[in-house]
Amino acid sequence: MSEAAASAEGPLGIICGGGSIPSAVADAVSHRGRRVVLFPLVGWADAAAAARYPHHWIHVGQFGRFCRLARAEGARDIVFIGTLLRPALSQVRLDWHTIRVFPRIIRAFRGGDDHLLSGIGKIFEDNGFRLVGAHEVAPEILMAEGLVGRHTPNARDREDIRRGLAVISAIGRFDVGQAVVVADGHVLAVEGAEGTDRMLARIADLRRDGRIRLPTGVGVLVKAPKPTQDQRFDLPTIGPDTVEAAARAALAGIAILAGEAIAVEPQRMAALADAANLFVIGVARGADA
């Protein structure tokens, strides 16, 4: 897209959770010539990163404040990106506009993460905003097919990758997790509410306690979106922290679905993976791993 075309689309509003992904998206969009306005979430977003762009801090639940500020900025297109755990209702800061749609928010909470996100997204759309996926405005953040780093999966690892993708496909329809750990054909862990890094920490603990007796360097973290997932929200993500956690869990490597998941700081990931003798690979949907 040319800079003129990007500018003509109007500003992009980015609701920022934690981590470095919001900055990566903002940088990519800005480099294309489109103005970005950040809406960092209090308690989650990085203050130093937010300060690099026009921004307005908001609390979770301040929907009226967001609408007012986004409209004043001319930002109709909105991206949700970054880490944000499902907040307890007691943590939500309600303003008057939020109170008006609160029954819909309660209904959205009564289900899995996909149900929650799609419900919240519909509220935004009903108020005149257009929700877009971060990968639509910054496609370079998507994991490419192939290796990151110099290490490659062996035949056992590739079979573990195939099994992991099959497990995610099977359980994803129940709105469960985007990640599994498979080692020598055994499913060792399925991601729950704790997230990927804590799931890997659990694997490390199980190894230390002797509950996993496979040798070190056996096992693969596999990540992919759920089959019915709205890909505008919460795409699977890996980054340097994931590589370090996989190394502590003594895995062989990481596999993630190419073109449908986000890779943060791939060059740093490659350096860490090489140092830890881990492979990191993007695999195509339906392809032989």
Describe this structure in words.
The protein folds into two domains: 3-137, Rossmann fold (3-Layer(aba) Sandwich), CATH 3.40.50; 142-283, 3-Layer(aba) Sandwich (Cytidine Deaminase, domain 2). It is built from twelve helices and twelve strands. The protein has helices spanning 3-8, 21-31, 47-50, 63-73, 96-100, 102-109, 113-126, 134-137, 155-172, 196-208, 240-248, 266-275, and strands at 12-16, 36-40, 77-81, 130-131, 146-147, 179-183, 186-190, 220-223, 237-238, 253-257, 262-263, 279-283. It has a six-stranded mixed β-sheet, sandwiched between helices. Strands 2-1-3-4 form a four-stranded parallel β-sheet, with helices on both faces. A hairpin with a 2-residue loop joins strand 6 and strand 7. Helix 6 (102-109) runs antiparallel to helix 7, helix 10 (196-208) packs parallel to helix 11 (240-248) and helix 11 (240-248) runs parallel beside helix 12. The two termini are 33 Å apart.
